[in-house]
UniProtKB/TrEMBL annotation:
Molecular function terms from GO: calcium ion binding; patched binding
Listed PANTHER family: HEDGEHOG, PROTEIN HEDGEHOG
Pfam families reported for this sequence: HH_signal (PF01085)
Single Gene Ontology BP annotation: smoothened signaling pathway
Entry GO CC: extracellular space
Domain of life from the UniProt record: Eukaryota
Domain (Hedgehog N-terminal signalling): residue spans on this chain: 488-587
Full protein name: Hedgehog N-terminal signalling domain-containing protein
Length: 1116
């Protein structure tokens, strides 16, 4: 097969064009035994990217792109079987889905831009099994076909392009404004550096042959000063006396740094050419003015070794590189060189086209990237002060190390054990060197003398840069701010420096306590190493040294005796990784860290350090500009250890974009997802690349995304979720679960949810709360009906009170005691919650009332059938449940016990059957239902609740059917006239009336009124209130009216305590979205008075029914 594709990308000024050819062979193997298939396999071999692959790239800014394709290939192969005889050929379908992608990454590190283009190819193969069934007596062959599972084939990966270019895009400028002189740009000059030892200390000597110095030749004449021999500058030499060194190789640190950048960029632009210095430091006495430039003020720059005349050679003969060097006088070449000089941070660049060279100069000796303290934020200034205070501290608490110091730690041991430094600290991203000034300036020069630092090496050798002499004395920190002069042994990350300072303090305390007579200190053998010094060989240093995140340590005396203690103290000093590497030294490493002090963000299972990327990648990981005004920006973290658990169900890899190292993540997102994991009954996951997206990654499909989904991926505040089967019902349930589980905690901190419905996923993000709206939803291609239901759910959440979300879903969502059909019914009545019945008496009562209960039950069934309506229900429909409710289960206690449970199960099913069968079990219950404590025989609100168009439990037809049953009585003994309630009292309570009231609450809709006459009524009506506020999603609001002797605050507090318990302990699968809104008002005094007057007749009947025993005694 062959696959060709072209890619053109143009972010900014960059473009990438590729043509990739891929080829492969496939082999299908089938084995037959006695005419039946025994094995079958598909093998894909010799996949390769052909040599015809063509790639071009011109990346002028940091970019990272991933271009993915899918290519379907279907083949029809031919199969011939040779067994007893030759059979006809048969088709053998094979489908290959080829999935090529091209990854383009370009990033700059100082003056160098690295661009890589990689092609990866994978495929899946789906074959159709062909089984010929041949009959020897027939000439025909039957074919059976059956698809087998797709086989995933990893094909390979190939680097199409790795290009290093000069990072130089200076808008076409090739020199500075020529109306300005050096002094105009760089202000006044200072004292000239004369060829005297006292002044030469400010100059540095350039090594190597990367630059050709042609201006001073050994021609027998004097140079610089009369009587001084001219030096041969063509080859460098380092001698004891600077006065005998080549003057043109003597420069200020600032000029040395800029020249090193120019060397690097010119080498990348012209690999076979060299820079040629025509004139540099000039110590010219007044008698020799021709050696100075025409402008005498500018000539002082040469006297200070801050100016240079430089050109570029013609292409060099590789066989004889130093022969016949001459300047390239092409104006085009000089333009390019001028552009490179500007990119190398020379402040003054002038082209001298007549002589084909540039005149370059640098300004005052200050760091080129010196930060303006006024640009630092208050937080950064505070952190820096905290860091310096910590570094200047002279004491530490070693007592926390006591247990640790008694543990063995031998050569070969590491902390943490069984892990590598890269796994713990993260691998190198961009190696720092002096030419990468922005990243290099973020390192810290250790200024204290409590540590001994080994020299970089002999000054005749180069260190860090081929132009730079090694520092042969690092005993004192450099007093200058110029990075060129810093001793690399003292250069390290801020996190590493703070750990080293703490280790020094701990070591001194330990020595004073254990070995007071011993004079030894910690010695640094190796610290920061520049990229040019690293070569990946077994005997080389760890690459973490190139980022200033590693130290090689020993002691100045008897290291073999004290390295174990030094290792343990290093662990105590909080180095992230400690390795007892050899008998002569230990190695310590640290993680990446942003800023001056460590800032850790706590996730559910892990704390992560806030980091900052290399300067060249800072735009790639920028916080999205449209969201920068929002508070609560999510931090950036190192995602190199992808398998780190952030929570019980999620790892770093779930939030990390493909082939991207860093990521942002708001901890609230993770907490939200964990709650959803606990609540959602099915499996769900974050879609691939469905969380954090870097700046470039976020541009993918940007024009096709919903306007609400443009920026929050990049902020680490959005995820895309999907379920296993991706159907609309499960997506709806997932979105509803997100709202239930996440909104309550977000609302508490004034944040809200955004949810977008897609065809096979949902988008979820965090956003600042806008007024009272804490959920924003939109349809981004999802099912319209599903979106309508989601909007209805969202509206219910907004119009209700607090969201109903259990804190213990496993417990809350256990199967309801009465079954899922009766999830809203409470087993416990408002009666006593404990049982005091005498079992013997209870058995006697049940036995003696058996016949009476049978009789009353028959009468009750007749009334039920009559109330249900003509032919709506017959005896067989309710006989079993009615007997279990009234006859078979007798005794027990109200609200507890096995008998009460059995009664409740049967009675609830009986009521359900009636309500399902009856033609009109209830009147219109919309905006008409009211509740009050119906057990109160002296109610003042009965008239308000049950009259004036309101419907209460006492006015529904079923109440009239049940009440006579519950009022029925029996003779205690046949020979006596004493009577007791048949289905009441302590001997045989019935749940029927309590269940009827709860059913009424569940079937009400719209507005519901609840009257409370005493503080205790909140408890008396608790089961009704729970249904109205938690379960019944048809209720719009509940209006509570209280009597004049009650306080609104007390009732509100009592009700809210119950609602808090209910909303956090109810299974959301059965409940409303949010607690029903409610209001509390006092009943007007006049209205209450009239209601009390009109309720007297009802109250008298209730009192008479309650006092029937007294009336009976008085009648005797």
């Amino acid at each position: 097969s062959s696959l060709n594709f072209n890619v053109f990308a143009a972010p900014g000024r960059s473009h990438v064009t590729t043509v990739v050819n891929s080829m492969a062979d496939y082999t299908t193997v089938m084995e037959y035994e006695k005419g039946n298939r025994s094995t079958q396999d598909v093998k894909v071999t010799d996949w390769q990217l052909s040599n015809e692959t063509r790639v071009q790239a011109d990346a002028q800014q940091d970019m990272k792109m991933l271009m993915q394709f899918s290519h379907q290939l279907k083949f029809t192969a031919h199969l011939g079987l040779f067994m007893d005889k030759m059979y006809p050929l048969h088709t053998f379908p094979v489908e290959i889905s080829s999935n090529p992608n091209v990854e383009v990454e370009s990033k700059a590190a100082g003056p160098v831009r690295s661009t890589k283009i990689t092609s990866k190819l994978s495929a899946s193969v789906l074959t159709t099994l062909v089984t010929p069934q041949h009959d020897d007596n027939s000439t025909e062959t039957n074919i059976e076909q059956q698809k087998i599972e797709s086989q995933e084939v990893t094909i390979g990966e190939q680097m199409l392009l790795h290009l290093e270019t000069a990072e130089c895009h200076h808008n076409g400028k090739t020199e500075t404004d020529q109306s300005l002189k050096m002094t105009d740009i760089c202000a006044a000059t200072y004292s000239r550096n004369t060829n005297k030892k006292s002044n030469l200390k400010n100059l540095l000597y350039l090594l190597g042959d990367d630059i050709v110095f042609m201006s001073e030749l050994t021609n027998g004449t004097w140079c610089q000063q009369q009587g001084r021999k001219c030096q041969d500058c063509f080859k460098h030499s380092v001698k004891n006396s600077k006065t005998n060194q080549c003057p043109d190789r003597m420069v200020t640190p600032r000029l040395a740094l800029q020249l090193s950048k120019l060397v690097l960029m010119s080498r990348l632009t012209w690999p076979n050419r060299k820079l040629i210095v025509l004139k540099s430091w000039t110590e010219a006495p007044p008698a020799n003015p021709p050696q100075l430039p025409n402008n005498k003020k500018d000539s002082l720059f040469y006297g200070e070794a801050r100016a240079i005349q430089i050109g570029i050679s013609k292409p060099i003969d590789a066989n004889n590189p130093n022969k016949g060097l001459s300047l390239d006088k092409s104006p085009t070449t000089l333009d390019v060189l001028g552009k490179l000089a500007l990119c190398a941070d020379f402040q003054y660049v002038r082209q001298v086209k007549t002589d084909a060279y540039l005149e370059l100069a640098v300004c005052m000796e200050e760091p080129p990237e010196k930060s303006d303290s006024s640009s630092e934020t208050e937080e950064e200034i505070s952190d820096k002060k905290m860091f310096m205070t910590s570094m200047n501290a002279t004491s530490s608490d070693i007592s926390m190390c006591d247990d640790l110091l008694n543990k063995p730690f031998r050569v070969g041991f590491t902390f943490p054990e069984n892990m590598t430094a890269d796994e713990v600290c993260g691998p190198v991203d961009v190696a720092n060197d002096r030419t990468n000034t922005k990243d290099y300036s973020s390192l810290y020069v250790y200024p204290f003398n409590d540590i001994e630092f080994e020299s970089e090496g002999p000054s005749k050798n180069w260190c860090g840069n081929t132009l730079r002499c090694c520092r042969d004395d690092c005993s004192r920190a450099s007093a200058t701010d110029e990075p060129w002069e810093w001793c690399n042994r003292r250069v390290m990350s801020r996190r590493l420096a703070s750990r080293l300072r703490e280790l020094s303090r701990l070591m001194n305390i330990w020595l004073q306590a254990k070995k007071p007579a011993l004079k030894t200190v910690i010695k640094v053998l190796m610290s920061h190493k520049e990229a040019s010094e690293y070569k990946p060989k077994p005997d080389q240093f760890h690459p973490l040294y190139t980022e200033g995140r590693g130290l090689r340590l020993t002691t100045t005396a008897n290291p073999g005796l004290y390295l174990q203690q030094l290792s343990l103290l290093a662990i105590c000093a909080s180095f992230d990784y400690v390795s007892y590497s050899s008998h002569s030294f230990i190695e310590v490493f640290v993680k990446k860290q942003a800023g001056w002090v460590a800032n850790e963000v706590d996730f559910l299972s892990q704390s992560l350090l806030v980091v900052q990327p290399p300067f060249s990648q800072s735009q790639e990981y920028d916080y999205p500009r449209p969201l920068q005004s929002e508070s609560g920006a999510s931090m950036l973290f190192d995602g190199s250890n992808k398998m780190t658990n952030l929570s019980p169900n999620f790892k770093i890899k779930d939030f990390l974009f493909s082939n991207v190292r860093y990521f942002r993540l708001d901890p609230q997102i993770l907490t939200c997802l964990e709650r959803v994991k606990e609540a959602f009954p099915e499996k769900f996951h974050i879609t691939p690349n469905g969380a954090y997206r870097s700046s470039t990654a976020n541009l993918l499909n940007l024009n096709h995304r919903h306007i609400e989904e443009l920026h929050r991926f990049q902020a680490g505040k959005a995820v895309e979720l999907t379920t296993k089967d991706k159907d609309s019902n499960h997506l709806l349930l997932l979105a509803e679960t997100v709202i239930r589980q996440c909104s309550p905690s977000l609302r508490a901190v004034d944040w809200s949810l955004g949810i977008g419905l897609h065809s096979s996923s949902i988008y979820v993000d965090l956003r600042p709360q806008n007024g009272k709206h804490f959920i924003k939803i939109w349809n981004a291609g999802g099912n319209n009906e599903t979106f309508r239901q989601l909007k209805k759910f969202s509206d219910a959440a907004h119009t209700g009170g607090s969201l109903i979300s259990s804190t213990d879903l496993e417990e809350a969502c256990k199967k309801p005691i009465l079954g899922e059909d009766f999830y809203y019914l409470s087993l416990y009545s408002e009666g006593t919650d404990f049982c005091t019945n005498n079992n013997v008496k209870e058995q006697d009562v049940c036995k003696s009332t058996q016949a009476q209960r049978e009789k009353e039950t028959s009468t009750f069934i007749e009334r039920l059938i009559s109330a249900a309506g003509a032919s709506a229900m017959d005896t067989s429909d309710i006989m079993v449940d009615t007997r279990k409710c009234l006859v078979d289960n007798c005794g027990g206690c109200s609200g507890s016990g096995t008998v009460w449970l059995q009664k409740t199960q049967a009675c609830s099913q009986l009521l359900r059957t009636f309500m399902n069968k009856a033609s009109k079990p209830f009147p219109n219950l919309h905006n008409t239902v009211a509740f009050y404590s119906s057990t109160n025989t002296n109610s003042m609100v009965h008239h308000l609740a049950c009259e004036q168009g309101n419907i209460c439990i006492e006015t529904i037809p079923l109440y009239a059917v049940i009440e006579p049953l519950l009022d029925s009585k029996y003779n205690v003994k046949e020979s006596e006239t004493v009577k007791e309630l048949l289905f009441g009292g302590d001997d045989n309570p019935s749940p029927l009336m309590e269940l009827l009231e709860q059913e009424l609450a569940m079937r009400a809709s719209g507005k519901v009124i609840v009257f409370l006459e005493t503080d205790k009524d909140v408890d008396v009506l608790r089961n009704v209130l729970k249904i109205l506020m938690i379960y019944n999603n048809k209720i719009d609001n509940v209006e509570l009216y209280i009597s004049k002797n009650m306080t609104e605050t007390k009732i509100s507090a009592s009700l809210r305590r119950k609602l808090n318990v209910w909303s956090s302990s109810t299974c959301p699968r059965f409940s409303r979205v949010a607690v029903t809104p409610f209001s509390i008002s006092k009943i007007p005094a006049e209205k209450l008075r009239r209601s009390a007057e009109k309720s007297k007749a009802r109250n008298e009947r209730k009192i008479a029914a309650q006092n029937w025993e007294i009336d009976w005694l008085e009648s005797l």
